[in-house]
Records
---
Amino acid sequence: MPGLASRLRRAREALDILSNFAADWRSRRVLAACYATILTSTTDPREESFRLRIRGREFPFRMRRSDLFTLAEILHEGQYVLKSTLPASPTIVDAGANVGVAALWFLANHPGAALHAFEPEPENFRLLEANLGSMPGVVLNQAAVGAREATVELHLASHGAVHSVADASVGSRTVKVPCLALEPYLARRGIARIDLLKLDVEGSEADVVLGLGARLADVGVIVGEMHERLVDVPALYARLGSAGFRVLAKEYFGDGLADGVHAFEMARE
């Protein structure tokens, strides 16, 4: 059972989510049931449908009960509350879109955005498609993002948020998935600029940057998670610094310090 401090933290989080992000009473009941579940199981696969309210916009949403952790990271902890200002109708690339919580956050905060989302794991992608597939301006890619275009092995974890190409320790099961590099992807799509690049790629952060090639010069803001055990963090920050980026934020959310995962935001000088 979680300790008292952990349970109190989770109770405050639940109050925030139910009060500020559940769109109606039915959605509050569904989310309350999810919170009751995660007291005893962090990997409950049962799916729930409800409505989210983000920045005054309502979105139908479907997730596994265990996806509540991802929901809380983005909506309660505010991991993608930007210090940077994006232009009107920005182009956003979401690498590691999972079931689409971050994508909805960006779309709610930046109406008119063009969003390109990448998610390799089939069950995550099924839910991502259910949540964003009919939205205008959204392109969904069932693929990982990396240094080059290839077929790669995705290591499957017990929780849907931590599948990884880079980290074999997350689980013994694997599935082969396509991997795209952003430099040729941008060329194929005729995309002139990425105003916001979001990275939640479980240890492939440096590979995504490498796959941008010369198009790194066309990225305005980068935000995401840095997996310190899997990435040469000083080298990657130095690479981005030499490309004109500076660190605006670096923070350990939740258990991030113990897990060696920090959130970051970088923007051009």
Note: The chain has a mean pLDDT of 95.
---
Amino acid sequence: MTCWRAAGTAFALLTLACATSRIPEIPAVSAQPTGEVHPGKFVWMDLVTTDVGRAQAFYGPLFGWTFAGDPADYVKVLHGDAVVAGMVPRRPAVEGSAWIGNLSVVDVDAAAAEVERRGGEVETGPVDAPHRGRLAFVRDPIGASLLLVRASGGDPPDALPPHGRFLWRELWTQDPQKAIGFYVDLVGYQQDMIRLDDQRYRVLKRDGVPRGGVVQAPPEVKPQWLAYVRVKDPSETAQRAQALGARLVLQDEDAAILIDPTGAPFGVQRWDGQDEETTR
């Protein structure tokens, strides 16, 4: 197993807010206000990167993404006409790049307090961001980073994403049971086990809807939430990613894990929308 590292310090958007008393203008998580709240759903992804230009040159041809915005401030990632993610530059003194997931919660302040009560860290916030909502950048008790959000316009409705958009999030951790216990209390997940070929896989659900997976990580892998993009052919996508400068970490018939040229890990996955067999 090749090692990759997750982001090590506070989320760049909120770090910038503390340093300059402002937050970059960032888009809402849903193009149209929905008024819906789906606790436990990852509703947005932001790439915090050491090199926004290099990241654009990689992800643009790989997934057909286009970009709008100031690379020194905040860049919107578009797939077709839809804004699907963001990119923000890391501060010069901060090491590494990472995709940071925005996890929907009912009450950001209460959730941040629960993180601290359970032995995690609130690195920045809670703070209000125009268009986005209330945010707090936290690290769970095992060490994985994420952004808690209560979206001001509501969460996007559940739907199978088209190819080229984010599909799934997977928590890699050395202590799955401790991590699962934490997220059960934080957002009300239920744990299921499914069979994938001959292996059992932990799935976190809320109200019967799968929201993420949990993987036993080897010691050299830092705890993190890994984001997967839906693709038609993971093998072909992985080959193109490597030609564009990525490094391949793992690969099987239906998925691959890579590290982009700026150092951010991500996954690609084939998915037809069919549920796997669930075991309890």
Note: Residues 1-12, 15-22, 276-280 have pLDDT under 50 and may be disordered.
